[in-house]
């Protein structure tokens, strides 16, 4: 089937989800990295995923008051989870190009400029991400890097076993996200399911061979990725991916089997595996 003609690039939105456990100082650092880009977004959509703390509300109010036309605040009455929050948020994006960002991460100053250059050079491109650098406490304390495949074919093959995009780095076309069914509720794998659906919908993919986002991690992240509860959620997510037909039983069993080993080892060893092997 012939691909629909891409919409012209008239600007772009940034899409983020914010919930009550986020730290106000992290949000400020994130916003600073967005507002000091070489190319500033035309719209910043922030989904309040349930009630926020007074401190977070104060930070949001300060930014909105400085430039009311730049921000679109979407409020959800209760916490819906990342997938459903982003699904609602993308509907409020005014531009076809949308850059994802988490509210505790930092984008390098040229991130948006580099991604826009890729979309301008290739009007058929639908999603463009990059590698990430992972840090603890401050951006100078780099502990790991997660590299991803670069070209369309490599991305689509890699996606069968592991995510071929770092979610917080992507810039994608809203039209293709909606064509693929938008984000769905799928614990741990909201982005995984979206990438699969976008690929199946005919998305053209690319990653830039640079780390364009600094991602904040901590020891608590490795603890959260352990235990039977996490494994059951992971297995359920992989089951949904298998049901799309994109992966076969062998891919499913291999990934769940590896995860079974990872979640049962001590958290400190799990951290070493993530930093030194999985994210290197």
Describe the protein:
This protein is of the alpha/beta class and 280 residues long. Helices cover 43% and strands 20% of the residues. It is built from eleven helices and nine strands. The protein has helices at 24-35, 54-66, 82-91, 111-121, 152-158, 174-179, 190-200, 219-224, 227-243, 249-264, 267-278, and strands at 12-18, 43-49, 71-76, 97-100, 106-107, 127-135, 142-146, 171-173, 205-216. Strands 1, 2, 3, 4, 5, 6, 7, 8 and 9 form a nine-stranded mixed beta sheet that branches. Helix 9 packs antiparallel against helix 10. The longest helix has 17 residues, at 227-243.
Q: Which assembly state applies to the chains in this document? A: single chain
Bulk shape: globular
Order of helices and strands: EHEHEHEEHEEHEHHEHHHH
Main sheet record: 9 strands, mixed
Structural class: alpha/beta
Residues in helices, as a percent range: 40-55%
Instruction: Summarize model confidence as the mean pLDDT.
Output: 91
Enumerate how many helices there are, as a single number.
11
Low-confidence residue ranges? none
Strand portion, in percent?
15-25%
How many strands appear in the DSSP assignment?
9
Write down the Rg. Answer: 18 Å
């Amino acid at each position: 089937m012939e691909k629909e003609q891409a919409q012209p690039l008239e600007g772009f939105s940034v899409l983020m989800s914010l919930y009550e456990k986020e730290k106000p100082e992290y949000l400020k650092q994130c916003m600073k990295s967005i507002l000091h880009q070489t190319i500033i977004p035309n719209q910043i959509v922030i989904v309040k995923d349930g009630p926020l703390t007074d401190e977070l509300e104060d930070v949001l109010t300060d930014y909105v008051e400085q430039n009311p036309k730049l921000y679109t605040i979407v409020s959800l009455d209760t916490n819906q989870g990342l997938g459903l929050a982003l699904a609602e948020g993308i509907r409020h994006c005014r531009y076809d190009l949308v850059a994802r960002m988490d509210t505790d991460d930092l984008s390098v100053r040229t991130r948006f400029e580099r991604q826009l250059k890729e979309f301008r050079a290739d009007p058929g491109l639908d999603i463009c991400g990059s590698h990430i650098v992972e840090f603890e406490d401050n951006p100078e304390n780099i502990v790991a890097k997660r590299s991803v495949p670069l070209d369309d074919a490599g991305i689509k093959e890699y996606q069968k076993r592991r995510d071929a995009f770092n979610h917080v780095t992507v810039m994608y076309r809203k039209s293709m996200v909606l064509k693929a069914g938008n984000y769905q509720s799928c614990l741990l794998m909201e982005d995984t399911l979206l990438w699969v659906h976008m690929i199946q919908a005919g998305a053209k993919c690319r990653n830039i061979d640079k780390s364009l986002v600094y991602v904040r991690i901590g020891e608590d992240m490795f603890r959260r990725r352990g235990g039977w509860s996490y494994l059951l959620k992971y297995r359920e997510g992989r089951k949904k991916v298998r049901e799309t037909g994109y992966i076969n039983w062998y891919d499913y069993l291999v990934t769940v089997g590896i995860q079974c080993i990872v979640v049962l080892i001590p958290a400190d060893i799990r951290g070493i595996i993530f930093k030194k092997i999985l994210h290197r």
